[in-house]
Amino acid sequence: xxxxxxxxxxxxxxxxxxxxxxxxxxxxxxxxxxxxxxxxxxxxxxxxxxxxxxxxxxxxxxxxxxxxxxxxxxxxxxxxxxxxxxxxxxxxxxxxxxxxxxxxxxxxxxxxxxxxxxxxxxxxxxxxxxxxxxxxxxxxxxxxxxxxxxxxxxxxxxxxxxxxxxxxxxxxxxxxxxxxxxxxxxxxxxxxxxxxxxxxxxxxxxxxxxxxxxxxxxxxxxxxxxxxxxxxxxxxxxxxxxxxxxxxxxxxxxxxxxxxxxxxxxxxxxxxxxxxxxxxxxxxxxxxxxxxxxxxxxxxxxxxxxxxxxxxxxxxxxxxxxxxxxxxxxxxxxxxxxxxxxxxxxxxxxxxxxxxxxxxxxxxxxxxxxxxxxxxxxxxxxxxxxxxxxxxxxxxxxxxxxxxxxxxxxxxxxxxxxxxxxxxxxxxxxxxx
Length: 433
Prior knowledge:
five-stranded parallel β-sheet, FAD/NAD(P)-binding domain, alpha/beta, eight-stranded mixed β-sheet, globular, 24% helix, disordered C terminus
């Protein structure tokens, strides 16, 4: 029989979200264990491309007890700088870590609490816990369409999380599928490297990098947009399914204008619908996708205009984006061989995978049913999900607040019945007598 041990709180995942909960629990003397299948914050080095740059300003980077303190708060850290910054945070505390250990099963215990099956290179262990925090990321499984397996095997295919640089791909043109943040930035990376790029657009919106003298995300933060809870956000829970706006922090930050790229030779298409052998089929949605992305761009700028006027802020005059390129037609097919396309980068997102969790806390789409990370099952919580509470959830801007809330719910359970109570102001925790 595998060895069985007990820990009051188990945190599954040692990314910045899980470690933030650990920071708060450690501060309050709550015994816990952080279990990580790889190494702490490994995703930053393993799943970001070489030229990856944050799309949020450096001042957004803040974690419990730690924030960006460099000389470029309005700049954008590159991948290796983010890794260095995260390692600096890890040096400030000593989380109880067990690395290279995967949780393959989580279920409710017969007498309450939870039972976890842990598998490492040389052993299997049973662990029981009173509370469990799932910090494995929102959507761990990369999405690749089923028809991908029917495409010409001579065309190399990889998901965006595998992409590192243009030299990694065989000579020839590249098809990038998807225009979320990763797809748009990878298309830019390949375009700047001199590769011929074919880009299949989705429905992702875009945002200006700078507007009226400041970064747009700084304006939005001042406007309180990142503090609006999902329940109060326009569209409510549907916001959780929205694709993030594409923009880049590369070279000091700039817009990603796909129309401009097209004018420079990038080939744009609508939504990729199907494919077989060397032929791809697209929906005639290119013009609609471009117009919709630009409408969002201008709408956000208009919101900033109203904020500036309302607050009486002195700023450069308002502007409006006008298209620099229009498609002549709506291409609905592409022969990969004839176009010299030798590789495809799939950047169409990820899907949830919680099959290892045996608990009735998921909706019909396999997504956790939670309120600010806390589920209806006592003792089970999630952290690091997109739009878990606000637009800032799942990114550096909102992790501290989310972690403080999750930790407070655990500490309340541990301290229930004691003379003191645990309170949170959303950024720090304190025990009051």
